[in-house]
Amino acid sequence: MTLSWNEPSSDGGSPILGYHVDRKEKNSILWQKISKALVIGNIFKSTGLVDGIAYEYRVTAENMAGLSKPSKPSEPMYALDPIDRPGQPVALNITRHEVTVSWTKPEGDGGFSITGYTVERREMPNGRWLKANFNNILETIYTVSGLIEDATYEFRVFARNSAGAVSASSLPSEAITCRDDIEEPKLDVDSIYSSNVVVMAGEVFKLEANVTGRPLPSLVWTKEGKELEDTAKIEIKTTDFHSTLINKDSLRRDGGAFTLTASNPATNEKGVSDSRALNVPVVAKDLVILPTFKMVFSTFSVMAGDDLKIDVPYVACPKATAAWFKDGAILKETTRVNAESTDKNLLLVIKESCRDDVGTYTIKLTNNAGEASTDISVFVLDKPGPPTGPITLDDVTADSVVLSWSPPQYDGGCSINNYIVEKRDTSTTNWQIVSATVARTTIKAVRLKTGCEYQFRIAAENRYGKSSALLSEAIIAQYPFEVPSSPRSVVVQSATKETMVVVWDQPSTDGGSKILGYHLELKERNSILWAKQNKQLIPEPRFKVVGLEEGIEYEFRVYAENIVGLSKASNISEMQVARDPCDRPGKPEAVIVTRNQVTLRWTKPEYDAGIKITGYVVEKKEGSGRWMKASFANVLETEFVVTGLIEDQVYEFRVIARNAAGVFSQPSDSTGPVIARNSFVAPSPATEVMVSTITKDSMVVTWERPTNDGGSPIQGYVVEKRDKDGVRWTRCNKRNVSELRFRVTGLLESHSYEFRVSGENAAGVGTPSTPTIYYKALDPIFKPGPPNNPKVVDTSRSTVSLKWGKPIYDGGCEIQSYIVEACNGASDEWFMCTPPTGISDTKFTVKRLLEKHEYQFRVCAINKIGVGEHADVPGKILLEEKLESPDLELDADMRKMINIRSASTLRLFVPVRGRPAPEVKWGKADGEIKETAQIDNTGSYASLVIENVDRFDSGKYTLTAENAIGVKSIFISVRVLDSPSPPTNFIVKEITKNSVSLTWEPPLLDGGSKIKHYIVEKRESTRKVYSPVTVCNKMSWKVEPLPEGGIFFFRVMAENEYGVGLPVKTLQPIKISEKPQPPGKVSVLDVTKSTVTLTWEKPEHDGGSRISYYEVELSPKDSDAWTVCTSVKGLETVVTNLLKGEEYQFRIVAVNEKGKSDPRQLVQSVVTKDLVIEPAVRPKVSTYHVQVGYDVKIEVPVAGHPKPTITWTKDGAALKQTTRVNVTDSLQHTTLTIKDATKDDGGMYSINVANAHGSKDATIEVITLDRPGPPTGPVQFEDISAESITLNWEPPSYTGKWMKASFANVMETEFEITGLTEDNKYDFRVIARNAAGAVSKPSESTGSITAKDEVDPPNYETD
C-alpha cells in the first residue's frame, strides 16, 4: 500500500526532519514501526502485507526537539490484489440529453465480490472528468442524463468490491455526440432458439431477445397472429433493450410459433422492421436430463456470527431430490441451519455462523436419469480456540522458567498471529502480562521472585481476536540443582619463564545445572597463600597464567561454578618451574612401516633454551583417539621404533623434547596418518633352480633371483629338500642364505632328492619354487653323453651360429664345458673352434670361416672325468650371405587390444628378423610418444617401455622395420584404463541475474570405460576452492540460484568406473547478471527552441551489473524511426541541435555489460520552443530561528523561464558571500547556507528574482538566539554609605533577539503572555498567518514594557 499525509500544522519552531510510520492490523492493539529510517517527504510504500487483512496506519513527525504525537489512525484498508478494470463502456442508446452505456465486469475482483460501479463523464476536448452517478450502480448498464445537446462526451467506469478496493478506470468510451439519432430496430436472438425448444409438460419455458434501435423501439409478443399479454400463466418482462416471455405449467396447446416485433418512429423513413420469429414451434414433451452441478466455487468462508448463504446451481430433469450431508453424516436442519431447493438452485443457509459449522458438506442429487454428488468446504473465520495443554514448565531457576505448549486445535480459519502469556503470584488475584507478542509455542518467563509460587495462563490470538486462556499448574521459582563436583586432573600443559597454560578435566557431575565456568588459583612452592588468577569466569577447561617469575615453582587448583554456586577445590597440580621451553623437535618421519611397528626419525630442536636436551618423549594417537605415550623410557637419540602396533590400524606420532631443567617443549608436528601395514608383500618364487656337483653325501643347489621382490629387498633364501621315500619338506639351511647357491650336506648315499627355494624379505618367506627333478646322491664316475640336438641357428658368409641342449646323461657329475669342432669339406680335417677348456654356454658362433666353402660341425660335453661323446650337426653348411625381408612377430596377446591400468608400466617387446638387420622405428598413429618413453631397438628385437601411463597414452602404436629387401609395419592397440579426459566444447550458453546455463560435449578419451555421469562445480572468484553444484547424466546444466552480481568460475568433469577425469574450466570469470530493467520515470526539465533537457530515474534493477551508460533516443512525433542522439553516464542530459517548432518523442535505454534494457519513453511529446514564464519566488516560511553556533539552511523555491537572475540582500545591502555564508542556485531553488551562525547573521534577507518578463521579491527574517550582550555602561554609584551602595546601568545593546511567546495558534487579536520576570523590561510584536500558510512581516514593536503590578496611589476626598 502507498500512504500519503499532510505536513503538521506547526513545525514547533524547527524544520521537520522526517517522519516515522506505524502499522497495525484492524483487530490488533499492537502498533509496529515499519519505517526503518526517517521518511523524507510525505509518501511511503508499505510492504510485507498479508492478503485479505485490514490495516491501519499512523504517522509521527520529528524535528530537532524530538517526536510529535502520532496522527489519528487512517481508515482500515484491506491488503488485496487490485481489481481489474471494467470493460470499455459502449453506448446502447443516445438522445440529445441522455446516453445509456453498458460495460463488462472486471475479469478479476481482487478476491471479493463486486459491490458497485462509478461512472464518470468528460466533455470533449478539454473538459475534466466529473462523476455521473450519485447512487451506487449495481448493474453493468447506466443512463447518464443532464447532457448538452450536440456536445461530445467520453465515459469511463470504476469498479468497487466488498472490501472497499477500487479498480483503475476502464478505457474511455469512444467519443459520443448527444443528439437524437434514428436507427431501425434490430433483434438479437440466442442460437438456442434456432431449433425446436422442447420442454416437458408441466414445466416452464422461457423465450428472450435483445433489441437495439433509436429511438427506443416498442416490443410486442404474438402467437399465431394474436398479441400476447402479461397474465398469470404468461409473464412478459420488457426493458429498454431486452424482452423475456415466461410460460408456466406448459401444456400441449401452449406449443406453437412465437413472434417478437420491435418498432420505433424510424418506420417513417426506413419502414417497419421485419419481425423475428423463434424459427420453429415449441413442442411440449417430457425431457430427461442427468443431474449436473454448475458450481463456480467449492470453498466458502464466513465471519463468525455472520450469515452464510451457499447457492449451488444445477440442471436436472425431471426435478431431482436433494440430500445434504456434513462430514459424512446427514445434515441436521435446525432453525439456524436449513436447506432449500428450487428447479435450478440448491440453497444452504447458515445463520449466525460458528466454529461448529466448519467442515465438508456433501450434496447428492437423484432423479430418474441417475444421481450426482459434490463436496463443499466451509470455513468459519473466528478467534481461535485455547492453546492445547498441558503447559510444560522446564528449566526452572530462582528467577525464571521456560513455558511450552501446543497450538490450538482450532485456529479460527487463519494462522495464529501470536500468543499472550500472563503470570500470577498465587498469593494475589492480579494477572500480569509476561509477553503479548509471543510468536512461537515457548517462552522464557523472567524476573520472577525467588521462592514465590506462580501460575501462568496463555491465550492465542489471530486476526479475528483472542482465545480463552489455558492455565498452568503452580510452580515455585527456585533452583532444583546442587553445586558441581570438583574439577579433575589439573596439569600444566606448557610453560615459559613468564606464563603457564593450565588444563583440567570437567567435574564428574555438574550438580544438575550446566557448568557456567571455572576459577583458577595458584601459589608458590614455599607459600601458604593461594592467589586467584581469573577476573572473569573461565568458560573452557583451560587457562593461561601470566606474570610469573622465572625459576619459581608453582602449583595450581581449580573450582567449578554452576548456577547454584562454587564446587570444592580440585586436587593440586604437580609443581612446575617457570622457564622458557626449548623449541619443538622436527616433524617425525615414518622411515620404516610394518604391520606391527614403525621406525620414526626426527631432527633436534633448533633452540634448547640454553640447557642441554636430555631426551625425548614419543606419543602416538589411534585414529581420532587421544594422544598416549609410546615411549616409557627416556629416548636419547633422534630415532625410535614404536612397537606393539595393531595391523591396519591408523596412527599418528609426535615427539616432545626435554632439557636438563626438566622443561618440556611443545609437541612437534604430527607425522600425519600412518597405517600399520607392510608396504610390500613376500617375494615371488626363485627361478631356474638347478642341482650340480653331486656327491654321495652332498649336492650344490643354484638358482636365480625371483622376478618380483614384493617391494622389499630380498634378505635371504630358504632351501628345502624332500627324500623320494619321504613326504615332508625339510629346511636345509639354518640361517638365511644370501648367495644364489647353497651346498646341501648330510645326504644319504644312493637316496634320491628333490629341492625347492623360497625368497624372504621383510614381509616374510615367499612361495617356494617349482621342485627340481630327483637327483641321486652318488659320486660321478662316467664321461657325459653327447649334447642333445645340435643345430645351425644362423649363417653368414663368414660365420655359423650353433645351438644345442645339455646331454641327457651327465655321467653322474656336473657338465663343466662344451667343445665345438669344425671340418672344411676341402681338407676333411677337424679343428677346434672353442678354447681348449671349452665354453659353458650351449650356443656358440663360429667365426672367420671361408665364404663359399662347405663345413661340418660337431659338439661334445666335458665333466670332471673327461670329454664325452660328440654329437654331429646334420648336413654340410655352405657359407654365403642370406637376404631376408624384415619380419615382426607378434604373439597372440599383442594382436588383441592391450588393456592396462593407469600409473602402471607399459612394456611392448617384438622380435625382429631380417637380413641385413633392419632399421626399426616406433611411432603413434594419433600423436607422439612420450619423451620419457624408453625405446630399445636391436637387429633382433624392438622394445618400448612407458612408465606411469595415463589416459593420453592410449592409442595405436606403430612399429616399422626396414632393410634393403623391404618394409614391414605392424600396429599395437593400447587402451589405458583411466579416468576420462576433459569434456569438450564447454560453453556458457546463457546468463541471467540468478543463473548460468552450461553445455558441453563428451571427452575425446573416455578412459576405456563408459562415462557414468558428469560433475559440475563452481568457485567464487575470491576463493580458491571449488564447491559441488550437481552430478548429472546430461550434457547441459542450469546452475541456480546464484547471488546476483556474483563472479564465478565453473568447471565440468566426467567420471567413469576408474574415477573422476580432468576438468574443463571457464577461462574467464562469469558475472551473474543480465540486461537491466528500463530506466524509471522520464521527465522534462527545460525546453528551448533548439534544446530539450531531460532527466530520469535509475532502473529498479540493474540486472546485477553496474549501469555503464544511458542512450537517449529521439524520433519525430509521427515517425517510428528512433535514432540515438547522445550517450551519458548520469541521469540528466541536454539534447541539442533540434529544429524550432518541431515535435519530438524521447526515450531512454540503460546499458550494462550484458546488453541494453527495454526503452522507457517520455509520456508526452515535446515541442521545441522558448518557454515564457514570469519569475516567481515562494518562500515556505518567512521567519527562521537559529541558535548561535549552529547551521541554518534556507531553501526557497523559484520559477521563471528564461532562467531568472537571483539576487540576495541583507538589511538593504548586497549579501556578501564567504566560506561561511554562501548562496547556491538551481533551476527550481535558491539556497542560502549559513554555517556556525553568529548574532550578526540575524536580520532581514531579501530575494529578487528577475528575467526578461518581470521581477519578483520576497523577504525572509533570520532571528539568531544567543545569550545577551554585556549591560551598557558606565556603572553609576549612588547613595553611598558605610554599609551599602546603589549601582545603576543601562540594558545590553544586544538582548539575544526576538523569541516566540505563543506556542499554539492565536485565533483572536488578544493574547495573555505569562512566565515573565517581575521588573524585567520586554518588547512585543505580532506576526499574522493566513489560511494558505503565508506569514506577514512583524508588526511594529510595543516599545519597552516593565513587568510589574499596577498600583493606584491613594486618593483622599474631603468635604
Automatic annotation (TrEMBL):
InterPro entries documented for this protein: FN3_dom, FN3_sf, Ig-like_dom, Ig-like_dom_sf, Ig-like_fold, Ig_I-set, Ig_sub, Ig_sub2
GO biological process, one term: sarcomere organization
Database matches in CDD domains: FN3, Ig_Titin_like
Region annotated Disordered, chain positions: 1333-1359
Record keywords: Immunoglobulin domain, Repeat
Keyword Repeat: yes
Record domain Fibronectin type-III: where: 1-82, 85-180, 386-480, 486-580, 584-679, 682-780, 786-882, 982-1075, 1078-1171, 1248-1350
Molecular function terms from GO: structural constituent of muscle
GO cellular component: M band
Coiled-coil region: none
The Ig-like domain, residue ranges: 185-279, 886-973, 1179-1263
Protein name, entry field: Titin
